[in-house]
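To: structure subgroup
Subject: Chain for Friday's discussion

All,

I'm putting the inputs and outputs inline so they're searchable in the archive.
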Amino acid sequence: MTLTKKWQVMPQDLFAMGPLVPVLVIKDVEDALPIAEALLAADVKVLEVTLRTPAALDVIRTIAKELPEAVVGAGTVTNRELLQRSADAGAKFAISPGLTKDLLQAGNEGNVALIPGISSISELMDGIDYGYDHFKFFPAEASGGVKAIQSIGGPFPDIRFCPTGGININNINNYLALKNVMCCGGSWLVSDDIVAQKDWSKITQLTQQALTHIKS
């Protein structure tokens, strides 16, 4: 099946924008811009806002409207309806923890880049059948981590991954060293404690430290 390329941002370009994709769980819309600005200050512009809170779509809408330099997307997109609602809110991409054939088809029909989640070869093959070649590997550490993704690269050398789940400053370089990994998602950069304290400069500091660590 050929992928319909109506997307505003293509997955290969999205994955190439930087090695870090912050996974953001934002409960209060008022926190959206300070968090996004803190990440942009560290030169990270791809932001995944997970649809795990009632405020998530409004958060995406706010960032998309007020900070056009940010590439904001929706995470935890599990069905066709959520994909459409994310697009309507201004998301430029959508990431799912898994995949269904209906979601894959909806991604092909829409104008927002869909990054399906997989944790098995069978799921990967379903995604490939629908024309996808960029995937989220989730939950990364629990699903075999670096060794699993490295092994997948044998029979599927053209597939690229953004692993998420259990990734932190201590193991991110192990993932990024793999040829089939272009970026990694992580939530440690914007923890609940930091948000509760509204310590926005801490987000910038942690992100800069992570990027320095990756480049070293």
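Points worth raising on Friday:
The mean pLDDT is 96.
The chain is about 40% helix and 15% strand.

D.
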